[in-house]
């Protein structure tokens, strides 16, 4: 069985014809990945199902205990208050889900425009301690089906401490004048590296791509086309999936989460013209929109400290504030690496959580004003949905601790049953679009997240003022 590295080498082997070598066949890539299975993966899936079935069985056999707890609730003031709150939240979240489902069904990606209509494009790749991954990224970008004379490719080494600069130089040797590489005098952060690219970019559209991501041959043209067909479009989010989804258990789970987050949630947001976050893995911005908010973006602070995280969410927020639309292109596929161990994963989620807290505060300052033409209801509903999840994180954590101390078996069994029911939608969604077998990882991910990452948002709220990337260590990948 072929590993991820060996599969990639098939597509990145040296050859005189760059354009023919790097036309990546993503279908073949995914088939190769799917062949990589392990007894541990099967054990985790089987264990997940046994756990969920056990939870449902316990709920059935503990009906009398649940009824007694319910009676205690309705006979107390706090119980009634909690029951009313949970009922309101249930109907609110249910309504938002139906609303998103409707707009997901209405979503259609914009087809690529012709070469003649494609605008000039500057692709910026910031890199820090990515090693050879940056070479893979740059070569895949150079293989894009995008008019060469309209494409400017910039790579910026943000003071890496490993061999990232060497691999940038190797890519430069291969690509020649098609690639320009630069090195920061010291590590200044991703935002500063991107800013340098923005200042040097000559394209009408800026595209940012993470240095551990691989793009499909038509990703760039699909990502950029909405700017041509929609003059109100200020930014476009790419469709991110997991590159290393067969190397470890966590990436397998995260791939399902990414598909739901992008192909369902962002599709619905795109129908409203209000994608809340353009991902660092692959995103495009109208140059005029970037330049309009660049001073505020590069000098952004939170509680008196410079913001060195959440640069993608911040840029999206500022462009939405301008009144522009932010869209999603499901046909602009990019594969990116994710953490394979728990430590790297929770640090990544903490960074995202802190960014969401900060940017929701910023969004609250304009979302209920007349910030754009046309209906703003959808944007406001998306904001309220995300804000409620943040606001309720701490109260529900406290309630969970209370139940753990007083009714642990009822809490665990009802939680497992809830996971079995609620996670069936992601399972069906992924199964219909990709693979039935891999879709079952949605159950495992929900169990894993519920019992081992439940503390992330409360912690992110209390530490929202803290800076630091947390996961920017030396790359351990080939």
TrEMBL record:
<keyword id="KW-0808">Transferase</keyword>
<keyword id="KW-0812">Transmembrane</keyword>
<feature type="transmembrane region" description="Helical">
    <location>
        <begin position="40"/>
        <end position="60"/>
    </location>
</feature>
<dbReference type="Pfam" id="PF13641">
    <property type="entry name" value="Glyco_tranf_2_3"/>
</dbReference>
<dbReference type="GO" id="GO:0050501">
    <property type="term" value="F:hyaluronan synthase activity"/>
</dbReference>
<dbReference type="GO" id="GO:0030213">
    <property type="term" value="P:hyaluronan biosynthetic process"/>
</dbReference>
<keyword id="KW-1133">Transmembrane helix</keyword>
<dbReference type="GO" id="GO:0085029">
    <property type="term" value="P:extracellular matrix assembly"/>
</dbReference>
<feature type="transmembrane region" description="Helical">
    <location>
        <begin position="381"/>
        <end position="403"/>
    </location>
</feature>
<feature type="transmembrane region" description="Helical">
    <location>
        <begin position="442"/>
        <end position="462"/>
    </location>
</feature>
<dbReference type="InterPro" id="IPR029044">
    <property type="entry name" value="Nucleotide-diphossugar_trans"/>
</dbReference>
<protein>
    <submittedName>
        <fullName>Glycosyltransferase</fullName>
        <ecNumber>2.4.-.-</ecNumber>
    </submittedName>
</protein>
<keyword id="KW-0472">Membrane</keyword>
<dbReference type="GO" id="GO:0005886">
    <property type="term" value="C:plasma membrane"/>
</dbReference>
<feature type="transmembrane region" description="Helical">
    <location>
        <begin position="80"/>
        <end position="102"/>
    </location>
</feature>
<keyword id="KW-0328">Glycosyltransferase</keyword>
<keyword id="KW-1003">Cell membrane</keyword>
<feature type="transmembrane region" description="Helical">
    <location>
        <begin position="409"/>
        <end position="430"/>
    </location>
</feature>
């Amino acid at each position: 069985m072929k590993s991820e590295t060996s599969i990639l080498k098939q597509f990145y082997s040296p050859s005189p014809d760059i354009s023919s070598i790097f036309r990546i066949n993503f279908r073949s890539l995914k088939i190769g990945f799917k062949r990589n299975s392990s007894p541990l993966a099967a054990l985790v899936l089987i264990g997940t199902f046994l756990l969920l079935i056990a939870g449902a069985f316990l709920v059935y056999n503990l009906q009398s205990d649940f009824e007694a707890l319910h009676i205690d609730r309705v006979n107390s003031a706090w119980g009634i208050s909690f029951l009313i709150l949970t009922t309101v939240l249930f109907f609110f979240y249910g309504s938002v889900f139906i609303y998103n489902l409707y707009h997901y069904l209405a979503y259609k990606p914009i087809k690529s425009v012709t070469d003649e209509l494609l605008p000039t494009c500057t692709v910026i790749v910031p890199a820090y301690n990515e090693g050879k991954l940056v070479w893979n990224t740059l070569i895949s970008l150079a293989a894009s089906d995008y008019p060469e004379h309209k494409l400017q490719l910039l790579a910026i080494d943000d003071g890496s401490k490993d061999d990232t600069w060497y691999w940038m130089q190797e890519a430069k040797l291969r690509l020649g004048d098609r690639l320009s590489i630069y090195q920061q005098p010291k590590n200044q952060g991703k935002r500063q590296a991107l800013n340098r690219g923005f200042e040097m970019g000559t394209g009408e559209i800026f595209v940012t791509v993470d240095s551990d991501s691989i793009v499909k041959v038509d990703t760039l043209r699909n990502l950029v086309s909405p700017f041509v067909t929609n003059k109100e479009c200020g930014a476009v989010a790419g469709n991110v999936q997991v590159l290393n989804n067969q190397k470890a258990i966590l990436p397998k789970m995260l791939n399902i989460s990414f598909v739901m987050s992008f192909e369902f949630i962002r599709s619905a947001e795109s129908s409203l013209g209000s994608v809340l976050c353009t991902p660092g893995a692959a995103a495009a911005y109208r140059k005029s929109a970037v330049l309009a908010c660049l001073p505020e973006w590069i000098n952004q602070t939170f509680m008196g400290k410079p913001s060195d995280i959440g640069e993608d969410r911040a840029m999206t927020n500022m462009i939405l504030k301008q009144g522009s639309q932010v869209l999603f292109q499901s046909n602009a596929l990019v594969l990116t690496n994710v953490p394979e161990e728990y430590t790297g994963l929770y640090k990544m989620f903490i960074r995202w959580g802190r960014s969401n807290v900060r940017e929701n505060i910023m969004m609250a300052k304009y979302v209920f004003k007349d910030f754009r033409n046309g209906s703003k209801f959808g944007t406001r509903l998306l904001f309220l949905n995300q804000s409620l999840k943040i606001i309720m994180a701490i109260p529900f954590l406290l309630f969970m601790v209370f139940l753990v101390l007083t009714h642990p078996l009822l809490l665990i069994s009802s939680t497992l049953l809830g996971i079995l029911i609620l996670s069936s939608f992601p399972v069906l969604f992924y199964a219909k679009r990709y693979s039935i077998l891999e879709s079952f990882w949605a159950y495992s991910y929900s169990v894993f997240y519920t019992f081992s990452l439940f503390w992330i948002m409360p912690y992110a709220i209390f530490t929202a003022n803290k800076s630091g990337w947390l996961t920017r260590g030396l790359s351990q990948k080939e």
